């Protein structure tokens, strides 16, 4: 299938706790900066966790007018901001495109939770007539893809993928298939999440999956470190523009990478925990690599799911070694989440943006807070602790795994 229509990445956009542009985000992660901070948007004094990865001073009017911005939940705002960036970065002139062959797929694990909370309070205080008529359009998970489609007149495939923390990566993979199949030439795709809210935070606190390092928030996200005690909840969005290769080449587009492979599997094991041996994750990587048609020994880098949870970090380490064998020790592996926290359904897209920039610049961003590698994660693996490194990347993989047993792997290559 992959040798029929090639698919390339021509535009990047993101909004993360480190800033609302790709350049600021990538410069920050290369310097090992953390975007984790104390929560200030609501009272967290009674919460066991009082910090998160939050994009502060975000202004949607930099991307759309004030009236339009007010009609969006924050997760939709972040998605739109990222899409505007990605489309601009791609240099594509949509007025010259057949818009029936241009689509958008945007994932979100939770959707408009902040709008749900706001309107529930209004319901309790003012009764049914106090609920806004914009409630449903703002809370629905497909609001982001629908809004982006309307903004740009994209009349091709338009839907939302909901697979928890694998949502963005699955969205990108499905967009890849849409182009390969011949149904589309251009796809705007990624994921968005804005669940740092009272219900969002308290729910993950109740699950006991979050780090409680309130005295040192920027040290809390520490993937593969023996001292990790949970992940850091975060918000954010990431978007990419995918194009059929000849289409991009014809218009002289800048190409960041070729999207070569997409693997998706299910653990069929537990609603929140991966199988200890990472079997499902390994199969997703195997499928993506096989589809890409690249020898394993040619891979230089893996952007790990790397959540900073005990079960995930160990399972992913084992999966990488199972797939790559001895070559696993020759690759570099790092976790973007060590610096921005876990943006749930947006994480895979943000991490693919980071991986594309690493391929472009030959700079691999570090895994910060990695003081002592957990023996179960194997200290012999190159997790790029604390400091970025120079390394040319010809082929890379990006992993995303979600509650529900969802596994996804994307493979990109230098063009």
Q: What would CATH call the class of the largest domain?
A: Alpha Beta
Number of folding domains?
2
**How far apart lie the N and C ends?**
18 Å
CATH architecture of the largest domain: 3-Layer(aba) Sandwich
Strand content: 15-25%
Helix percent reads: 25-40%
Strand order of the largest sheet: 5-4-6-7-1-8-14-13-9-10
- Cα-atom radius of gyration: 20 Å
Determine the structural class based on helices, strands and strand pairing: alpha/beta
CATH topology of the largest domain: Peroxisomal Thiolase, Chain A, domain 1
Number of helices: 13
Dominant shape: globular
Low-confidence stretches: none
Describe the structure.
The structure is a single chain. With 415 residues, the protein is of the alpha/beta class. The chain has two domains: 243 residues, Thiolase/Chalcone synthase (Peroxisomal Thiolase, Chain A, domain 1, 3-Layer(aba) Sandwich), CATH 3.40.47; 153 residues, Thiolase/Chalcone synthase (Peroxisomal Thiolase, Chain A, domain 1), CATH 3.40.47.10. Helices cover 33% and strands 18% of the residues. Helix 11 links the parallel strand 9 and strand 10. Helix 3 crosses helix 6 and helix 10 crosses helix 11. The relative contact order is 0.19. The mean pLDDT is 97.
């Amino acid at each position: 299938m992959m040798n029929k229509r090639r698919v390339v990445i021509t535009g990047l956009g993101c909004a993360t706790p480190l800033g609302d542009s790709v350049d600021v985000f990538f410069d920050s992660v290369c310097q090992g900066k953390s975007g984790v901070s104390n929560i200030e948007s609501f009272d967290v004094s009674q919460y066991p966790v009082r910090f998160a990865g939050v994009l502060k001073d975000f202004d949607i009017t930099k991307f759309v007018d004030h009236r339009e911005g007010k009609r969006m939940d924050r997760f939709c705002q972040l998605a739109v901001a990222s899409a505007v960036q990605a489309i601009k970065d791609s240099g594509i002139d949509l007025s010259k495109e057949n818009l029936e062959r241009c689509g958008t797929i945007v994932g979100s694990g939770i959707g408009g939770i902040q709008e749900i909370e706001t309107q529930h309070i209004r319901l309790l205080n003012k009764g049914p007539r106090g609920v806004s008529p914009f409630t449903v359009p703002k809370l629905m998970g497909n609001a982001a893809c629908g809004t982006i489609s309307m903004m740009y007149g994209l009349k091709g495939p338009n839907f939302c993928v909901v697979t928890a923390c694998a949502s963005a990566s699955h969205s990108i993979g499905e967009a890849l298939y849409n182009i390969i199949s011949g149904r589309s030439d251009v796809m705007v795709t990624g994921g968005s999440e804005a669940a740092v809210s009272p219900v969002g935070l308290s729910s993950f606190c109740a699950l006991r999956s979050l780090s409680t390092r309130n005295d040192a928030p920027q040290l809390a996200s520490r993937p593969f470190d023996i001292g990790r005690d949970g992940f850091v909840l975060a918000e954010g969005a990431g978007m990419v523009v995918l194009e059929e290769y000849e289409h991009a080449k014809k218009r002289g587009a800048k190409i960041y990478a070729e999207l070569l492979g997409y693997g998706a599997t299910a653990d069929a094991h537990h609603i929140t925990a991966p199988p200890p041996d990472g079997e499902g994750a390994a199969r997703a990587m195997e499928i993506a690599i096989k589809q890409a048609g690249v020898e394993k020994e040619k891979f230089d880098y893996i952007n790990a799911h790397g959540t900073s949870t005990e079960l995930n970090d160990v399972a992913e380490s084992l999966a990488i070694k199972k797939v790559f064998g001895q070559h696993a020790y020759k690759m570099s592996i790092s976790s973007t989440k060590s610096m921005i926290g876990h943006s749930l359904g947006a994480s895979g897209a943000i991490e693919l943006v980071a991986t594309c920039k690493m391929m472009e610049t030959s700079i691999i961003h570090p895994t910060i807070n990695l003081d002592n590698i957990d023996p179960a994660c194997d200290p012999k693996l190159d997790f790029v602790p604390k400091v970025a490194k120079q390394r040319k990347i010809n082929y890379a993989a990006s992993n995303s795994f979600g509650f529900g047993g969802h596994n996804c792997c994307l493979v990109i290559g230098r063009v």
